Amino acid sequence: MDSVDIFNELSELVTVRINSCSEVEHPNSWIERRQYKDYDLWCIQEGQVEIRIQDEVHIASEGDLILLSPKVAYSATTPSDSCIFIFTHFDVSLGDHLSILDNFQLAGILKNELVKEERRLFLDAYDQYKLQMAMSQMRLKGALTILIAKIMEHYGRCHYRGEFIQNASEQKLTKYLDKLQPVFDFAHEHLHQTLTVGELATIAGMSEKYFISYFKQALGVTPGRYIYQLKMNRARDLLYSKQYSVQEIASMLGYPDPYSFSKAFKKYYQVPPSKFVW
């Protein structure tokens, strides 16, 4: 399992928050030197933007996206007569982890062909947002979520790596998720068993107490919540397949009996498994 799959497995716990979104036009005399506290996404509409990270210079053209992270101090200018872009300040959290994206090297320039369709959806949503149409804020948030998901997909498939790195000391990304990779793999392969936190801690080579703290810091959720989420995701898929009885699914997910499984399922989905699929 790739580490970015965490976002898919725990999608119900992922929160995307837009702090501001607007369009701006800059003349050729424009120079900006900043380091933001949140993530910033620029959709280049016209002209070019030159981004300088220390001694490295990067050029984004019309159709490209620029993704800036809180870790990156930059200077920006336009090498053309002027430039127009839409900027979006946003945060992404997973559970209690407010800086989950810092685990990935995302800040950089994304060429239009990588996210062409997702970019179009976002710009359509922005046009509605700009006109203050009904439900336009939800559409904008949804379109941004789709765009971020596409970027993460490209990252997971090694089709994209952000080139904005502040300095050598920050090139070492957070290793929390890498350290937990054996735990993720084991959990996926043994969902048919009753998994204990102590067992997972042993796989990670940590004491149980330290493992719980480490896991929560890495993902923003406890190991128990993570396992519960995996089992409920798998239960949902098995029920949708309509190939197995509730008793069979309970056994396939390591529950001692159908009652225990049904109780856990109802707690999560607010409906018993027998009535989940009509």
TrEMBL record:
HTH araC/xylS-type domain boundaries: 181-278
Transmembrane portions of the chain: none
UniProt-listed SMART domains: HTH_ARAC
Gene3D superfamilies: Homeodomain-like
One Pfam family this sequence matches: HTH_18
Keywords on record: DNA-binding, Transcription, Transcription regulation
Keyword check for Transcription regulation: yes
Domain of life: Bacteria
InterPro entries assigned: AraC-bd, Homeodomain-like_sf, HTH-like, HTH_AraC, HTH_AraC-typ_CS
The name this protein goes by in its record: Helix-turn-helix domain-containing protein
